[in-house]
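User: Predict the structure for this protein chain, please.
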Amino acid sequence: MNWGQWNTGSTTWPNGPLRPCEVLYEFYGPAIFTTVIGLEDFLLYKSDEHVNGDYYIAVHISEEEVTALKDGVVSLRGIFSKEKCWLLDVDFNMNVTRFERKNVSYIQTALPKSGVPLYSSQKRCPDSILQALSPFSFKFFGDDLLGGCMSFSRFNVLINNVYDLVRKTLIPQNIHEANSSSIMDFPIRQPIFASLLVPVERPIVDAVALTKKEAIKNLNPNDIINESERLGSNFVDVAEKTVERIAAKKLNSGYAKEHFLFFDAVDEIMPSEHSSVSKLQISSNILGRHSFLEVNREMGEEIRYLYREIRDENISVNGSVVGLVQKSKTFIIKASNGREVTCKVIPEIYDRMIREGYITVGRKVSVNGAYQKRSNRDFIKVDGEPKF
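Assistant: Here is the predicted structure, written as structure tokens:
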């Protein structure tokens, strides 16, 4: 936007001089501040200056948004990226000499850069209040995700990838083990295009369906939701550590094996050189903690490469026995990420475990061996004896 070419709008301002209520940032006068215009609260940002005054952009603001901005939860660009805004030409006495209402698309180049917080001491943060305050959100960027339109097939793939990741990581293991994941759902707010933002809300539990599941009917729905949020917090912790390790060039196969289920969950959602997604932002607001991280193509490739390197190597998998197959002398477990895994042990060990009553449906077990991911049910060739 070239402020010098702005010559439309009205010069008859009916509200008197601007009177800052709270100055959030000052640079030779108020640069970012709140004020009341008429009966409504506004936030103003000084975008440029000229000989006789300054050019401001103004948007409606809520108390919640001001707090989020001051706390470094949402970026300046995010606060000002609303459907409509006001352009103001203000003289040095804070009198408005010209004003005009515009669509936000008109002033994109006049806004601060993406991810820039209010204060330099704060970390990069999301560019929308919805992204910042949703319990979980995933924002995809790419050349074919621009302009508020994308192919139906691309939308389907990205939504399904988010769906799979959420159900793998946020459904408690005891719900998976009882084959009862259908009792939980995760509402999403309306996805937003021009990039693709998918905001995920707190889980809900079907309390009626829960009482019909014998293995888990005595569980409290609130306890299930709390456990889901704890799992979400753990996921974010590992995600942050993974990004930090990439930045420090300390990501290695040992770390990936230790966090195999995380790498397995995020594999399909990561940006890569062969994907139309060039960057992914993951935000969370759970258990009183805000988190925001970005993964670009290079970082995504590193995560995906390590996952492919370790997935056919020996790893440990924990779960519960859900089935036995006598003919092939294998047993099936439901892993903590909800995947079923066929476990192959040597026949002698299988026969002895059956004879001594070790393998029973519902029993918790840990196995170690070469892991193979398959479309319907994964497979692990167990080294030695399972640990019950």
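The mean pLDDT is 92.
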